[in-house]
């Protein structure tokens, strides 16, 4: 049965459901002009995810490992802004170190990056940083910049109902665009700050972020080829490290960089599981 709603209620619903246009981002407090709604953002992520995951080796088929990534990811995801976007965390089998956040909240870390980490707070830093990109809608804004607003709006509308051959074409197009997303330097600083915020809210020592950045920067100097791709999507510079350090010293003085991570043992067990799986596979 159809009931008629007063026009103002229809309008209010439309605005709250779609939130297209100029919105104040709750994570950063900045105004953003977004051409797609949250529902479309989620549809884009859903549409692109299977192709995207396949491109990076597919999900590592070890349930204990996926559970662990979901658990650490969930702890930073739960305390982030924009809860209307569902958060999902998964480990992909690619040996190229990288991490990604699709529009709509799908966050990935590759096996190659997990093998570079030594404790859980560094993992929380990776997943916290990516969660920051979701909360700040950096990925939506980057897609909008790179594709152009008109094309993105068109693809987003198609993604909502996209199925069949047209859907498959669209999925490939979106997955390719998302794999080549470029964040600005400001986006990177912001995602680090947000990552630090979520880590501390979830009970992690935020110095894990500095450990992570230092490790990756050192790696980029010793083996530039290995982290090349990651540096395209998330450039790491010594200024980024200094900024993260400055934030922690100013706002989170109660934490010490020298205190060991209490969950390092748990992390290393998981890394061993991953190493075993990779050995079996090869
Ligand atoms: Zn980033």
What attributes characterize this protein structure?
282 residues, mainly alpha, three-stranded mixed beta sheet, two-stranded antiparallel sheet, 62% helix, binds zinc ion
Distance between the termini: 59 Å
> Roughly how much helix do the residues carry, as a percent range?
55-70%
Count of helical stretches: 13
Coarse shape: globular
Number-wise, the strands total 5
Widest β-sheet, arrangement of strands: 3-5-4
Give unreliable regions as ranges: 1-5, 8-17
Structural class assignment: mainly alpha
What's the topology here?
Layout: H1 7-18, E1 21-24, E2 31-34, H2 38-55, H3 63-77, E3 88-92, E4 99-101, E5 106-110, H4 111-114, H5 120-135, H6 138-147, H7 149-161, H8 164-179, H9 185-201, H10 207-222, H11 228-233, H12 238-251, H13 264-281
Parallel strand pairs: 3-5
Antiparallel strand pairs: 1-2, 4-5
Helix pairs in contact: 2-7, 2-8, 3-5, 5-9, 5-10, 6-7, 7-8, 9-12, 10-12
The structure holds zinc ion (ZN).
Zinc ion is lined by residues 129, 133, 183, 188, 191, 234.
Account of the protein in words:
With 282 residues, this protein is mainly alpha-helical. The protein has one domain (26-151, 173-281). It is built from 13 helices and five strands. It starts with 6 loop residues before the first helix and ends with a helix. The structure holds zinc ion. Zinc ion is lined by residues 129, 133, 183, 188, 191, 234.
């Amino acid at each position: 049965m159809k009931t008629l709603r007063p026009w103002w209620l229809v309008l209010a619903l439309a605005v709250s459901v779609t939130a297209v246009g100029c919105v104040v981002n709750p994570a950063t407090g900045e105004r953003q002009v977004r051409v797609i709604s949250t529902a479309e953002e989620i549809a884009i992520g859903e549409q692109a995810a299977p192709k995207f995951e396949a491109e990076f080796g597919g999900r590592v088929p070890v349930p204990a490992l996926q559970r662990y990534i979901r658990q650490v990811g969930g702890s930073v995801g739960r305390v982030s802004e924009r809860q209307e976007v569902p958060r999902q965390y998964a480990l992909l089998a690619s040996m190229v170190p990288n991490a990604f956040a699709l529009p709509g909240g799908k966050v990935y870390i590759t096996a190659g990056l997990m093998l570079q980490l030594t404790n859980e707070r560094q993992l929380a830093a990776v997943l916290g940083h990516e969660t920051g990109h979701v909360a700040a809608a950096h990925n939506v804004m980057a897609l909008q910049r790179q594709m152009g607003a008109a094309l993105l709006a068109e693809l987003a509308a198609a993604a909502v109902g996209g199925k069949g051959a047209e859907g498959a074409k669209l999925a490939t197009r979106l997955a390719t665009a998302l794999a080549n997303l470029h964040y600005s330097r400001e986006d990177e600083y912001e995602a680090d700050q947000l990552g630090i915020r979520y880590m501390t809210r979830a009970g992690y020592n935020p110095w894990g972020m500095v450990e992570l950045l230092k490790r990756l920067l050192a790696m980029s100097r010793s083996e530039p080829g290995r982290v090349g791709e990651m540096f395209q999507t998330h450039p790491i510079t010594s200024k980024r490290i200094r900024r993260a350090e400055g934030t922690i010293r100013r706002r989170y003085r109660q934490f010490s960089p020298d205190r060991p991570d209490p969950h390092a043992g748990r992390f290393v067990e998981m890394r061993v599981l991953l190493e075993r799986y990779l050995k079996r596979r090869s």
